């Protein structure tokens, strides 16, 4: 009967990642986990294929009282949570301007909120061509379109010229553009903007003939490298012009390996108190009219961790071990590819590595025939190194290189 109204969306029969992951699970059930490489999962697994759960976070969860999960939370979040997010996000750096925080259900909620509040229905939202596929869905769900600039030029460098071209073209038809940049440890490539890239990006948005809402999706920041180094771009944001509003999308899913607790935040760094207050008002309204308030217990856990230096040190230390495990997998994967004569899309760290290729669907199919499950994107194959051991990284990289040569 077709009761559903598509409203410009293309609603698939099944979510591609979950369907692929289902086939990988079925292969594991039949052949055993050693015989299968399931590099589809966007969550951190240990070398045994078990979900990483941080014991220090679990200890904090165990101290929750019944009202911590039974009571409603304030729509924009509890005061302790808002403080915790600023500590988690900015680290040792002092942000400039007026900060306003609103809790969201995961980093996903922050993207939904920025699209709802800072673009018009029918607008185009700009991001890099390699991007998390859900960006497109979040835009179309709200009657917006996603437009892309080329992330890397022929030499594999950040393509600032194409960003400038696309931004200026969009400025001819929109007085304001939401520009979404996912860094550091970008999904799906693992690229982190260098400070030099940041300099170029800031100059471009400052010179744009329109207002720019610069949305920084930092979901993977805590897996990108040494804590201070990966946040070194933050002081540079003080150089943004009056036409630019920087807004961060933060994900506690990754930072605390607590994906199911659905906790994240949208954080505005406004030049004026008026813009910060406008952000608060709009974020509160968008939240109330979509998910309403968020998971209070997750907020309380964040508040407990970041107000207790000893507990925070424990969580940071535990995460560092997993972060280093992930960084090592990335190095080994890239090295194996290179030794076999294949290059990946510029990678520095994170959950994923991507290899550009012709006909990714066919390559994905051939890998699947060897019980190697990777996501076929429009322009390449995405490998979740977060979910496979070092040994499987080597095998997977070798198999991909063999197919591509
Ligand atoms: N941003 C990017 C680039 C992601 O890959 C993800 C999750 O995969 C998110 C944001 C949001 O994650 P969550 O909603 O689980 O915090």
Describe the structure.
This protein is α/β, with parallel strands linked by helices. It has 2 domains: 13-42 and 359-382, no CATH class; 59-310, Aspartate Aminotransferase, domain 2 (3-Layer(aba) Sandwich). 44% of the residues lie in helices and 15% in strands. It has 15 helices and 12 strands. The chain has a 7-stranded mixed beta sheet with strand order 2-8-7-6-5-3-4, sandwiched between helices. A 3-stranded antiparallel beta sheet has the order 9-12-11. Strands 1-10 form a two-stranded parallel ribbon. Strand 11 (375-376) and strand 12 (380-384) form a beta hairpin. Helix 2 (55-62) runs antiparallel to helix 13 (309-339). Bound molecules: pyridoxal-5'-phosphate (PLP). Residues 42, 106-108, 132, 182, 187, 217, 219, 251, 253, 259, 264 line the site of pyridoxal-5'-phosphate.
Based on the model shown, name its key terms:
alpha/beta, seven-stranded mixed β-sheet, three-stranded antiparallel β-sheet, Aspartate Aminotransferase, domain 2, binds pyridoxal-5'-phosphate, 15 helices, 2 domains, 405 residues, 12 strands
- Within CATH, the superfamily of the largest domain carries the name Type I PLP-dependent aspartate aminotransferase-like (Major domain)
Radius of gyration: 21 Å
The CATH architecture category of the largest domain equals 3-Layer(aba) Sandwich
Give the tally of structural domains: 2
Number of helical elements: 15
Categorize the overall geometry: globular
Strand order of the largest sheet: 2-8-7-6-5-3-4
- Which residues form runs of ≥5 with pLDDT under 50? none
What proportion strand? 15-25%
Q: What's the helix-strand series?
A: HEHHHEHEHEHEHEHEHEHHHEHEEEH
Helix/strand-derived class?
alpha/beta
CATH class bucket of the largest domain: Alpha Beta
Helicity range of the residues?
A: 40-55%
Distance between the termini: 48 Å
Give the tally of β-strands: 12
Largest sheet: 7 strands, mixed
In CATH, the topology of the largest domain is named: Aspartate Aminotransferase, domain 2
Rounded average pLDDT? 96
């Amino acid at each position: 009967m077709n009761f559903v109204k598509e409203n410009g969306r293309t609603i698939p029969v099944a979510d591609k990642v979950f369907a692929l992951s289902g086939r990988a699970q079925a292969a594991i059930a039949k052949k055993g986990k050693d015989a299968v490489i399931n590099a589809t999962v966007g969550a951190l697994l240990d070398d045994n294929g078990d979900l990483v759960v941080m014991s220090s976070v679990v200890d904090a969860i165990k101290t929750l009282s019944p009202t911590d999960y039974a009571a409603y939370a304030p729509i924009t979040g509890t005061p302790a949570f808002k403080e915790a997010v600023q500590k988690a996000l900015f680290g040792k750096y002092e942000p400039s301007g007026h900060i306003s925080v609103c809790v969201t259900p995961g980093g996903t909620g922050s993207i939904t909120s920025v699209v709802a509040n800072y673009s018009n229905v029918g607008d185009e939202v700009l991001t890099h061509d390699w991007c998390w596929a859900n960006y497109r869905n979040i835009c179309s769900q709200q009657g917006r379109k996603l437009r892309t600039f080329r992330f890397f030029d022929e030499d594999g460098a950040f393509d600032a010229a194409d960003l400038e071209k696309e931004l200026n073209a969009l400025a001819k038809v929109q007085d304001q553009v939401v520009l979404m940049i996912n860094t550091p440890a970008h999904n799906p490539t693992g690229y982190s903007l260098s400070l030099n890239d940041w300099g170029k990006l800031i100059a471009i948005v400052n010179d744009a003939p329109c207002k720019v809402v610069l949305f920084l999706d930092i979901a993977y920041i805590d897996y990108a490298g040494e804590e201070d180094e990966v946040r070194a771009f933050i002081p540079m944001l003080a150089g943004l012009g009056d036409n630019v509003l920087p807004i961060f999308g933060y994900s506690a899913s990754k930072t605390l390996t607590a994906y199911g607790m659905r906790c994240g935040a949208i954080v505005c760094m406004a030049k004026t108190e008026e813009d910060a207050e406008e952000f608060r008002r709009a974020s509160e309204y968008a939240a109330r009219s979509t998910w309403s308030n968020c998971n209070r217990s997750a907020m309380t856990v964040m508040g407990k961790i970041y107000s207790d230096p000893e507990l925070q040190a424990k969580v940071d230390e535990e995460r560092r071990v997993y972060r280093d495990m992930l960084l090592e997998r990335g190095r080994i994967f890239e090295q194996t590819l290179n030794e076999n004569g294949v290059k990946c899309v510029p990678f520095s760290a994170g959950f994923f590595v991507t290899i550009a290729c012709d006909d990714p669907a066919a390559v994905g199919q051939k890998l699947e025939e060897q019980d190697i499950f990777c996501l076929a994107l429009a322009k390449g194959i995405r490998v979740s190194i977060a979910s496979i051991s070092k040994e499987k990284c080597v095998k997977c990289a070798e198999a991909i290189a063999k197919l591509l040569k």
